[in-house]
TrEMBL record:
Cofactor(s) this protein cannot do without: Fe(2+)
Keyword Nucleus: no
Region span, Disordered: 232-257
Cited Pfam families: PhyH (PF05721)
Keywords recorded for this protein, A-Z: Dioxygenase, Oxidoreductase
This protein's record includes keyword Repeat: no
Species name: Bordetella genomosp. 10
Protein's name according to its UniProt entry: Phytanoyl-CoA dioxygenase
Molecular function terms from GO: 2-oxoglutarate-dependent dioxygenase activity; iron ion binding
Top-level division of the source organism's lineage: Bacteria
Amino acid sequence: MSPLNASQIETLRQQGFVIAKQFLSPERRAALRRLSETQLAQARAPLEYEADLRYPGAPSSRNAEGGGTVRRLLDAYARDPAYAAWAADPAIAASLQAYFGEPVVLSRAHHNCVMTKHPRYGSLTGWHRDIRYWSFDKEDLVSTWLALGRETSHNGALWLVPGSHAMDLAPERFDAVQFLREDLPENQALIAQAVSPELEPGDVLFFHCRTLHAAGRNQSDEVKLSVVHTYHGAGTRPRPGTRSAGKPEVPLAVKQS
């Protein structure tokens, strides 16, 4: 597994996201998928349920039809050594050290999960920036999105607006919970620029915390599974007393050649 090259790092800087094709080997990817399917079938805690978030298309409550649909297997780093090994992989450390220009730290407070999207009760996620509910002294964090299966717009893959991480958008362009207001013409023009890259199993999407993104419903007949983690440079710190500081962070080691 090779780290991102200089061209890919530059694309991440300029576009706000980049895709590393076949970043994870088929063997490790298949093992993580089997593990994720097992833990999902067992509903192994900690979990987040679609009904708890009540995004469009989610069941209205845990007692409603589909109310037991899991949205995320939480705290992946602590769930199994295989997740921890992926989250702290030296190729990720090297890639992001090249991006940040300093040692890399894994945040266990944000993402750090197996994201699921179910065919019938998986909800739609509106346009947002992840930094909207994070509290760090610098807005410079990058997430990795590992596809455990094929991801397309048909089964709920991400849509992203290229370059939006560098845009200064007025607060009134967002609603009370920091989703982009889709009723505004200027936001509609922005959304029209969005792309939805197709991911093959083992591909990894690296994307900046300020990149606008959204996801539609899963219209296939299979659950979509993705492993998602978030990182920042060692010089960026979570603000004390906030959710972002709620779990111990993990410094990443770069393999010495």
